Amino acid sequence: MPLPLPSRSSKPETKKSRSSKIVPSGNNGQSEKRGENYQEKISSSSPRRLCKKRSAFEDLTNASQSQPAQLKKEANKEFVKDVPKKIKGNTPALGLAKSNEVNMMTPLEDIDRNHGDPFFNSIYAKDIFSYMKEREEKFILKEYMNKQTDISSCMRAILVDWLVEVQMTFEMSHETLYLAVKLVDHYLMEVICKRDKLQLLGSTAFLIAAKFEEPCPPCVDDFLYICDDIYQRHEMLSMEISILQTLKFDINIPIAYHFLRRYARCLHASMKTLTLSRFICEMTLQEYDYVQERASKLAAGSFLLALYMMKLRYWVPALEYYSGYKTSDLHPLVKQLNILLTLRPSNKLKTVYSKYSHQVFFEATKIPPLDMLKLEEILNYC
Question: PANTHER family of this UniProt entry (predicted)?
Answer without folding.
Answer: CYCLINS (PTHR10177)
